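Running this now, will post back.
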Amino acid sequence: MRIDLHTHSTASDGTDTPAQLVRKAAATGLDVIALTDHDTTRGHAEAAAALPEGLTLVTGAELSCRVGGVSMHMLAYLFDPEEPALLAERELVRDDRVPRAKGMVAKLNALGVPVTWERVARIAGDGSVGRPHVATALVELGVVPTVGDAFTQDWLADGGRAFVAKHETDPFEALRLIKGAGGVAVFAHPAAAKRGRTVPETTIAELAAAGLDGIEVDHMDHDVDTRTRLRGTARELGLLVTGSSDYHGSRKTCVLGEYTTDPEVYGEITRRAFGAFPVPGAGGV
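Update: finished.
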């Protein structure tokens, strides 16, 4: 089995619609795909309706968190999307995205960049607006050559000249909410230093003690030495190890199935979850 447990669609900051994403996953030869858009489950219904036969959909979301002044992401799998407490927190994070993006536009304007909120909103479309949409606007204007080049201290990286903070959930609270909704929690790309500051391994140990299920080890932002170190951390803490592409369509260079999760780990994730169940493909519409 080929299992990719971290992808994004136009429901957040990906460039493929949920339907396009699952069809592409099947064509790529994947057996299981998780749709984990940022702080939203809005793409799940479309993905499930279009799911090709032979492909299984794992519903999920990537939750925005912050601890000790460091931003981090928590992948939540197979939770009940209507559970009131987790739903309210996701909406709080998502609703703060628009004023944050407008604040980044204002800072860019002050720096002499002629980006407009209308341009950013057009790029985001119906998705949850975020920094990648602002970064795409900077690419369109020729300010930076790629989306990745916008995530520097000159522009949109944490603490950068045009950075604006948003509401982010305490990860210990996120764990409580995910578990309360019957889900499974995996710390996304925990050592992706190129994105900015990362949490210390003491925090990972504290999260493990609080109920964290796993860490995403095999990821494009982790080099070989980092993956080896994280595998050791997972063994010591009794955490599951996942691998994923973090696919965003054409917005990033990663490709579907670039990194995958062991079938036994996937089986354990599905055994632990009780908020929702994987959706088997029935041929799509």
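The mean pLDDT is 94. More later if anyone needs it.
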